[in-house]
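R.M. (postdoc): so does anyone remember the format we settled on? I'll just put the structure tokens first.
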């Protein structure tokens, strides 16, 4: 039972990346899937999440209008499309799964399955 995040890399400011979060050993569509990021020397920060039933998506203010979260249940994968990337988006990005209620979507402790991170570097 695991989650695997992928798709990170080095990109110039203004560029785009698409992160993937693939699950094995369990079905993603029963869970809220969240994306978090952690920059060097900073705490882990919630970025976005998508609901398990209706696919409702939520975003932290700093990424609204630039990032889009989506899920493909047939592929058991959740994506984070990141556009107009900025240097401050540089971080290791993690995906996580949990039976999360809306009031706790920003809490890392609300998610009980975590994948290894994928590193995103935005730099010229």
């Amino acid at each position: 039972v695991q989650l695997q995040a992928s798709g990170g890399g080095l990109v110039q400011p203004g560029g785009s990346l698409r992160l993937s979060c693939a699950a094995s050993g369990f079905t993603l569509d029963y869970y809220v899937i969240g994306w978090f990021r952690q920059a060097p020397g900073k705490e882990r920060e919630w970025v976005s999440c998508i609901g398990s039933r209706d696919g409702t998506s939520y975003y932290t203010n700093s990424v609204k209008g630039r990032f889009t979260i989506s899920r493909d249940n047939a592929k058991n994968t959740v994506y984070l499309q990141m556009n107009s990337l900025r240097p401050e988006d540089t971080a290791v990005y993690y995906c996580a799964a949990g039976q999360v209620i809306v009031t706790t979507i920003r809490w890392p402790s609300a998610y009980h399955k975590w994948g290894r991170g994928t590193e995103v570097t935005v730099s010229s």
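R.M.: ...and that's the designed sequence above, right after the tokens. Also worth knowing: Residues 98 and 111 are 4 Å apart (CA to CA). The chain is about 0% helix and 50% strand.
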